[in-house]
Amino acid sequence: GKFKIKRAQATLLVMFLGFVGTVVFFAAFGSLLVDQLVQLISSTPKSMDEAVNWANQSFGLHLNSAEIQQKLNVSPQQVAGWASNLAGGVLGLVSSVVGVIFSGFTMLLFAFYFAAEGPRARDTVASWLPSGKQEVFNTVWDLAVQKTGGFVVSRLLLALLSSFCTGIFFLLLGVPYWLPMALWVGLVSQFIPTIGTYLAIALPVLVVVFNDPWMAVWIIVFATAYQQIENYYFAPKISSKTMDIHPAVAFASVIVGAALFGPLGALIGIPLAAMILAIADTYGKRYELVTTHTSTDGQPTSADSETQPT
């Protein structure tokens, strides 16, 4: 028969593979990532000087780059401090990651038991409800797990795919700091709705546009082409089992989540919106839409209005 694995073992296997993948990535690219991040941060004052000089020459302005950097708290002294914090290399980065993992150990443990013992926990809570309410509770629980889990998994897969393709293109094109730029594009474009794609591509364009405008043009062309491929090929296949959310609803859920719970709320806002819409779609009642037309004399008429006798 087919090979079967227990839920707890499957959950532990997935978490272990995720941990191994993270370790392998940092082992292969950790040093390069840290070096490029240090260079990117260190180049911030120079990039701002180039942008200010371009604006002054193009529009006849008299902006002072030093004052702008001071107001934005990105002076050379501040940037040097940031760069020195990363200059410890992979060891310092790994130490920080380990600290974060230990700090979030309780959350990871809860996530493991919630995933591994989800059905048992659902049945335990349902046993406290009347028999007439148990079916509704079980359906809502299953929808919540399916929609939130499906959304997060699909976004992570699309982010990895976007980072991989973008990283290869940036490397071949010779984009400076190509690795952190590719990771930025992949994560921001997938986890910030509606405007995420524009924010993601804006950073690499700004980094190269003042030194090589044609490179910026090629980045925009690639981003536009990849977005079409993702929308019509990658996303439908990966997200086929998840719920589509209107961009306005997705954007509003992020804003509300961030306002209520900060960065964590922004991250979980869309899955929660997907869960609520799934529940409403399952138990809500839809009515036939009444269409309003305009008559030849300019008066609105209802499509389902009764015919007047002549």
Class based on secondary structure composition and strand pairing:
mainly alpha
* Mean pLDDT level: 75
Figure out the total of helices. Answer: 13
Q: Indicate the low-confidence ranges by residue numbers.
A: 303-307
The coarse silhouette is: globular
Subunit arrangement of the protein: single chain
Strand order of the largest sheet: 1-2
Terminal residue distance: 74 Å
> Radius of gyration, Cα only, in angstroms?
26 Å
Could you give the order of the helices and strands? HHHHHHHHHHHHHEE
Helical residue percent band? over 70%
Main beta-sheet annotation? 2 strands, antiparallel
Strand content: under 5%
Beta strands, count: 2
List keywords for this structure.
two-stranded antiparallel ribbon; single chain; 13 helices; 310 residues; globular; mainly alpha; 2 strands
Structural description of this entry:
- With 310 residues, this protein is mostly helical.
- Helix content is 77%, strand content 2%.
- The protein has helices at residues 7-42, 44-59, 65-71, 76-86, 90-103, 105-116, 118-126, 131-173, 178-191, 196-209, 213-238, 247-261, 263-283, and strands spanning 292-294, 300-302.
- The chain has 13 helices and two strands.
- The longest helix is centred in the middle third of the chain and has 43 residues, at 131-173.
- Strands 1-2 form a two-stranded antiparallel sheet.
- Helix 1 (7-42) packs antiparallel against helix 4 and helix 1 runs antiparallel to helix 6 (105-116).
